Amino acid sequence: xxxDQTVSNYEDVxxxxxxxVVQGKISSLELxxxxxxxxxxxVRQLLQELIDEGTIEGNITEDGKRFFxxxxxxxxxxxxxxxxxxxxxxKVNTKTAKILLLTGFLMMVAGSILRxxxxxxxxxxxxxxxxxxIGLVVLTAGWIQFSRSNPPSxxx
Length: 156
Hints:
Low-confidence stretches: 1-5
Radius of gyration: 40 Å
Mean pLDDT: 78
Number of strands: 2
Shape: rod-shaped
CATH architecture of the largest domain: Orthogonal Bundle
Largest sheet: 2 strands, antiparallel
Number of domains: 2
């Protein structure tokens, strides 16, 4: 009785292997061995037996990791050529950012000059400091706007 069980078990394993390869179209011997709860060497041996008998037509790769059927069909689907286009970086008008930069710089220069005219009137210092600070804010706003609107063009 023990011999009959091992023979039927052996045939069941061969049938599962055949179904995995032919019907399931699985080519990875590692995956087949996990599905059938066997080691890869025994799967390789059983596949070789099935090839020798003529039950399955195909071949095992040289590294012994995959099995490919001989009757693999080439698809009739049209070949779609891959067209790779580089991402385009759009040109942005930075005229307003440059005007803000220049205006802020000129306001800072004018504020410094007004601070120097304290000899004429004491209120000139306060006006000069205020103009310098406002110029600093405008200059910073121009820098921020320019840095956000003009990305580097030669990204590799």
